[in-house]
Design goal:
Elements: H1 27-35, H2 41-45, H3 49-56, H4 60-73
């Protein structure tokens, strides 16, 4: 690749990961997320912290941490819902 080559990566082109790869998400929370239709880190990144806190019945701070991890893993979470 030359320096002039400009590659743009977006979340859709990166590999996805199971929710259990997020720190704080074990089998139990992964099952809760799956029941809510959230089966991947990319799907977590599309949510907002309020939704995640309600779904998981956790604090806003914990939900923000989970969301932050998901956004980092998906290169900024360009598909995030507001």
């Amino acid at each position: 690749m030359t320096p002039a080559t400009n590659l743009t990566l977006n979340a859709a082109t990166l590999p996805d990961h199971p929710t259990r790869e997020l720190h704080g998400i074990g089998e139990g929370r992964a099952a809760i997320l799956e029941t809510a239709g959230i089966t991947s880190v990319r799907a977590v990144a599309r949510r907002n912290a309020t939704e995640l806190a309600e779904i998981l019945d956790v604090s806003a701070e914990f939900a923000e941490d989970i969301l932050s991890q998901a956004l980092e893993m998906t290169a900024g979470g360009s598909n995030r819902r507001r």
